[in-house]
Amino acid sequence: MQFLKTTTNKYLFLVSVLGFLTFIALYDFNIHSNIEWFIIIALAGAILLLNHYPILLPPKGNSLSMDSSIFLASLFLYGLDITLAVLLINSILFAVTQRKIVWWKHIFNFSSYILMIVSSYYVFNLTGGTIGSIDINNFISYLISLLTYFAMNVIFVGLFFILAAAESFESVFRELIKEALAPYLSTLMLSLVLAILMSSKSLFGLFLFTCIAFLLSLAFKQHFLLFKEISEKANKDFLTGLNNHGYFKEILEKEVTVAKENDQPLCVVLLDIDDFKKYNDLYGHIQGDHLLQEFGALLKTKSEAESYTVARYGGEEFSIIMPNTTRQKAHSFMNELRKKTNDTYYKGVERLPYGCLSFSAGIAECEKETYNTSELLNKADQAMYAAKDQGKNLVQIYNQYSEYSAQRSLSLEKELEEAEQQLRIFLSKDVYTYRHSKRVYQYALNFSRLISLSEYERKTLILGALIHDIGKIEIPREILNKKGKLEPHEWEMMKKHVTWGKEIISTNKKLEDLIPLVELHHERFDGNGYPYGLKGKSIPKLARILCVIDSFDAMTTERPYQKTKTFKEAIVELRDCSGKQFDPQFVEPFIAMINQLDDTNLILEDDGMVVNN
Fold it and tell me: With a threshold of 0.85, does the pTM exceed it?
């Protein structure tokens, strides 16, 4: 029984056996009358025709088939026996006409339809429904029967995807219901329309229904093709035919979400043609456009062979999304592509410095704590320019400890003074928040020297600590300075300061690296924080560090609505909440720093500077 080795195959076998046994147990093998056979063949033929002409729905091209409408109409009008006969004839005809479909899919579909039809039939009977002409008094029975049919279909398909793709129960069923609910329920309701037509006009009603469904199929197909054509034009770069910048970022958002949810590797590559400006100066923009087209075609061919998504990012810059790809595999692929580019002749490239066409590329791998796609692209961008700085015609993997990160972070030093000026606005509104931010900044400055951080991370943490509460500018003064416990609606407003802070920081391109610290410093390690309820290492590392620092200072300094703790009490609280509110790897090192500060009699003054007593 080699076939039954996998869980998926066991599931298919179980459903198939159950379906066949149900058919054998319930189907009346007595010969039908000529009229019944005529109805059975007519219904099976209509299903076969409509399955060949499904209704295509934009934007994804999901198909809407009318077979379920006909099965259910047959069930309500003629009962279980004739409906099972219709299913049997249709399945045989479908298997003969669609021989390219693997055999087990035919068997699984036949069996699952049996179980869906039988379940709907018995639910219909148990809820008081009567077989025959459509009766308004049976409406509740019709509705429950239709919902049973839909639920059984979702369960059969959902379980298959869960076992085959090892996806979570929640994600599969959420996606199935989201995608199928409206169109599927529409086809089920159409079963009542067909039943009404057939109960009054018999097979002529079936003919009318089939003609209408066929014409709808043709109309929707034209509509879908037009939609697809317009969408492709909107998503494509007009010169190279590759995906454009906007569509690339849209795809990247989805791929990052999938990679994080399924804990799969994902790499992003940015590459820039070396000395392209010189090529344009030598041969003109028309020849330069031809070069971009030819290079784009090479990129597309090589990338699509690996199921990668390639786009023109802008000018002579291109980008590639590599799902299920580690940084090592991405580096190997890009180096092979670089060599292929070097070895492929393009008109005029012999006058370039390398005597051939070349590019510089940067690779960044998505990690669990990657905040967003902008952070990922920034890393790839840094690595790409590092490759250019090292002489071009190179592929560089992003490394947070590399010199280029440190060089880039030096610019943050210049923003400290600007951030300090913004923070001083608090002096006129909330002296506590201003002083709290200065103390958190000083803690971050000291702590960043004790833990393993790159120069870039250190600067980002320090500056983020200084302005992490900038969003409280938007909180009314009476709430900020209220004595006693906040009301629920006041607390909800207070929590919005992280979102408002993000909006304020987002207006300054130079400070975009600080957004995760400003927005996420109230996320908890156990997932019970805000604003998103992120958990564990899905929270960026620097935000997890800032959460410890921010909470410690909040506990140990006077607040209008909370009693102050001593350092010892706050340390106990940090340890109690380690693994819950705080990342354990940063709690003990921070406590060690606090104990060291206490032992050497260091104090924090109002201006945030550390001095000796």
Answer: no
